[in-house]
């Protein structure tokens, strides 16, 4: 007999034996690994601990995702110094920018989460910020100024700041999805990771000369 509104099942996990029960509680099936469903005769006791919740498993998996702080890169100075009125390229190491994954399971029930970086908010330490989609474009010698996908131009030196530097903070937002072997899955609240870097911003001094003939 199949009861239409009993199609959705929850799963209990008990000492490697799993029990499916209907949402309405009308019928029960016992599952044994390698055997499948078997009949249940006599008294049946629901185990302590309740249903295995695939959504909660997904949250547990998300809590276990290991994501190191983003690796900040700036340019175009090899000395690490930036300059006023010179566009500063901003990007994150490409080896860091990828989808991170983790799985949590209990018995035969498992949920997997995938956290994908989508955007970066840069707080530049001078009171301004910029948001960029993706990791940004690495600067290389000979790169044209318009090749960057994420830049900032400082308008003042960091000389008057404590320590003589601006603190740059990069905050990356991750979109999170989850799947399960017993549920459709979906999305979870976005997460973020932040890293900081101290940068020195100086001024380029122009030296002018007067031409002309001596009297």
What's the helix and strand layout?
Elements: E1 9-14, E2 17-22, E3 28-32, E4 36-38, H1 54-64, E5 72-74, E6 81-83, E7 88-92, E8 100-106, E9 109-123, E10 129-133, E11 151-152, E12 166-180, E13 186-202
Parallel strand pairs: 6-13
Antiparallel strand pairs: 1-2, 2-3, 3-4, 5-7, 7-11, 8-9, 9-10, 9-12, 12-13
Could you provide a short overview of the structure?
This is PKD domain-containing protein. The chain is mainly beta.
Structure description:
With 215 residues, the chain is mostly beta strands. The protein has one helix spanning 54-64, and strands at residues 9-14, 17-22, 28-32, 36-38, 72-74, 81-83, 88-92, 100-106, 109-123, 129-133, 151-152, 166-180, 186-202. Strands 6, 8, 9, 10, 12 and 13 form a six-stranded mixed beta sheet that branches. It is elongated and about 70 Å long. It comes from Iamia majanohamensis. This is PKD domain-containing protein.
How far apart lie the N and C ends? 115 Å
**H/E order of the elements?**
EEEEHEEEEEEEEE
Number of strands: 13
Identify the CATH class of the largest domain. Answer: Mainly Beta
- Helix coverage percent: under 10%
The biggest sheet amounts to: 6 strands, mixed
Overall residue-averaged pLDDT value: 80
CATH superfamily of the largest domain: Immunoglobulins
Question: How many domains would you count in the coordinates?
Answer: 2
Large-scale geometry: elongated
Rg over CA atoms, rounded to whole Å, is 29 Å
Beta-strand fraction estimate: 35-45%
* CATH architecture group name of the largest domain: Sandwich
Give start-end ranges of low-pLDDT stretches: 1-9, 12-17, 22-27
Classify the secondary structure makeup into a structural class: mainly beta
Q: How many helix segments?
A: 1
What is CATH's topology name of the largest domain? Immunoglobulin-like
